[in-house]
Structures are given as C-alpha cells and as structure tokens.
Amino acid sequence: MLRKDLEQKDIEIQNKYLIPEIIRLLDEGRTVTIRLKGFSMRPFLEDKRDKALLKKSDSIKIDDVVLAEINKGQYVLHRVIKMDENFILLRGDGNIQTELCRINDIKGCAVGFYRKGRSALERTDGIKWQLYSFIWNKLFPIRRYLLYGYRKLWLRIFPVKL
Fold this sequence. Notes:
Blueprint: H1 15-27, E1 32-35, E2 51-55, E3 65-71, E4 74-83, E5 87-91, E6 99-102, E7 106-114, E8 122-123, H2 127-138, H3 143-157
Antiparallel strand pairs: 1-2, 2-7, 3-4, 3-7, 4-5, 5-6, 7-8
C-alpha cells in the first residue's frame, strides 16, 4: 500500500474559539504548544515564528511568562512583574505599559519556548532564559529606545524568518 505524506498546514483559529479549548486542556493537566501571535514579547519572541509550551501552574512567581485573561475574553502571554495575594501586574517584554489581573485569571504558565524554528525547547527555568529575563528587566528604563533600535535597525539588517 502506498502512503502519501501529508503536507503540514497551519490553520489560524480565532482566539475566542482557541483559548477556551487551550484552557480546558490545561485544566485537565495537559501541556499545550501554541504558535505565538503578536509583537508584545519582542525582542525574544516573534509573531508567528515562535511557539510556547504551556502548562497549568499552582505557583506563579515574578518573571514567569503566563497566559492571563486581562479582560473578559481578552488574553495575553506576558511576564509577571509584580504580585500580591490578590493581583498580578503583567508586562510584555516588548511593551512599556502594564496589565493588571487577578491571580485566578492566570490560566497557564510557559514551561519554555521553541524559538527561531528550532525543535529544542528553551526552558524558562534554564540559565539562558533566566539571563535574558534578568538583563531585559533591568534595562526597563531604556527599553523604549532599545525596542526602537531593534525595530528600525536590527530587523532591517536581520529580518525575522518564519
């Protein structure tokens, strides 16, 4: 019997349908890999190029990258920058502004990322990601200028490959 190899195709599904299914799977204890959409986690994570491996987490801490519902039906995958017993303050690595949510609005936590088309997972608890996070967060006062240079200069010389 001859078998044809099936061509892999990406399908884009609106978040209003996809995210509830992702949350259901996370609540069942499964891990979920999603392709990232948007530019809010630049310069380390790119739109439609990189993927995140998510899991449900009982213990969220500062610097974790989480999937959170910030408004009814509006979700972000951003970094935790501050928290108390009720609320969590989030910010995308490519953003200046922040979002606020309740702890129970955190739906999942990133275990790691598949970056730049690689098949190896860059774990968020690994030294490389920890170093990225530490340096990038310390550079917050000048982040606006660094992001401008990244968009206007770096991406022109080294365009993102999907």
